[in-house]
Amino acid sequence: MSTNTSERVQKHRQALRDAGMRPIQIWVPDTRRAGFAEECRRQSRLLRGDALEAETLDWLESVADTEGWK
Asked: I need a labelling partner for 6 at 20 to 30 A (CA). Which of 20, 38, 40, 50 fits?
């Protein structure tokens, strides 16, 4: 059965390549890791009162498409 699964995965990947896609690998922070949330809070506190941060947040709010959000 693993051969069948392997063949299906290979076929799926080839179909994606045929459609002009290519695989990439992206490493992102592990949000489940101990201390992750505290590090987010620490970094956020460093930006409190920062003029450029406020400007960036204002810009994000002005360009965000939030239609249909609750």
From this structure: 20
Q: Which domain holds residue 55?
A: 34-63
SS3 56: helix
The reply to whether 55 falls in a domain is yes
Please state the domain count of the chain: 1
Task: Evaluate whether 53 touches 47 at the Cβ level (below 8 Å).
Answer: yes
Specify if 23 maps to a domain.
Answer: no
Confidence of residue 1 (pLDDT cuts 50, 70, 90): low
Q: Calculate the alpha carbon distances from 42 to 19, 55, 67 in Å.
A: 43, 20, 31
pLDDT digits (tens, 9 = 90+) for 25-57: 999 999 999 999 999 999 999 999 999 999 999
Q: Specify the DSSP class assigned to residue 67.
A: T
Is the pTM higher than 0.85? The answer reads: no
